[in-house]
Design a protein that fits this description.
- With 360 residues, the protein is of the alpha+beta class.
- The protein is built from eight helices and 18 strands.
- Helices cover 23% and strands 30% of the residues.
- Strands 1, 2, 3, 4, 5, 6, 7, 8 and 18 form a nine-stranded mixed β-sheet that branches. Strands 9, 10, 11, 12, 13, 14, 15, 16 and 17 form a nine-stranded mixed β-sheet that branches.
- α2 packs across α3.
- The chain binds 2-OXO-4-methylpentanoic acid.
- The site of 2-OXO-4-methylpentanoic acid has 6 residues, from loops.
Length: 360
Amino acid sequence: MWEDLEIAVNKIDPEKCKAKPPQDALGFGNYFTDHMFLMKWDRENGWHDAEISPYRNFNLDPAAMVFHYGQAIFEGLKAYKGENDQIYMFRPEDNLERMNTSALRMCMPRLPVDKVLKALKALVYLDRDWIPTGNGATLYIRPTMVAVEPALGVRPSSQYYFFIIMSPVGAYYAEGFNPTKIWVTDKYVRAVKGGVGHVKTAGNYAASIMAAEEAHKAGYTQVLWLDACERKYVEEVGTSNIFFKINDELITPPLNGSILGGITRDSVIQLAQSWGIKVVEKQITIDEVIAACNDNSLQEVFGTGTAAVISPVGEFCYQDKKYVIADGKTGELSQRLFDELQAIQNGTQDDPFKWIVRIG
Ligand code: COI
């Protein structure tokens, strides 16, 4: 079935194109481009009705299973416009493969990666005028799969939509690349081993909102999650993986089932190793982080994610005590990783890892 999947292209009437938002006030995920991609799945036909069309609403039954039991998975990746208006995407295949890992865990159908990649490239090319340039602005791409069968039994849906929408974005955090402040919670947990913490499913984010709200009220940007059993091992930050530079070693928690395997996380590990930096994937307790902060061996802390790229952490708060990291300033390694990743993504730097896909 997949082999025969045709992708129809139905372009917007040029008169109906939306006005582009001002590039200096994009925020994150507030505007959407003129086109989208949609394809449908059911047991009989597999993936079918693949179409690039003008951005539009769906007409879904109120009983669509995603509304009730949350069978929803998504990805986040970006397209960039480099010199000479060349368009690039960063590791798109890895995102689609990760989506298939999510699909497996959530009993949803596998995506035909090569077909989706083809559709994605065509979609990005069609809406290329929406890719912002300058000052870290990019085109954020959101592939999503949801269960649409109208039924209330708790079981896998027999019908799904897979769609891709795109949004021109600025920095994810109001702080931009400036250091953020994170709130370590031992009251709430994000994920347990055996659960769905390692997959990108909507419910993980829904479950995180209350802790994030409390963190915001206390003046913090994001939540740092601890493990659900002992509440002492560091896991990840709200929308990012986390790294600690201690005594010149880069430490990040291992992918042991409750942490999302970030593509930026993997890129940072590869980059740092290629620079001769020792990277250790190991469990680290919040007490170890505090001890390192107190004896000044904690040199840098930063989060990594598609939306956030590299986000330096200048301060954290745990059990009502505040800890300032490296005088609250952006560390040298965070800056170097940010600059290098951006240069690779914009095509201004060699791409020794073959992460970049050129479009057009
Ligand atoms: C991403 O970094 O792409 C994410 O998915 C984070 C998002 C929830 C804002």
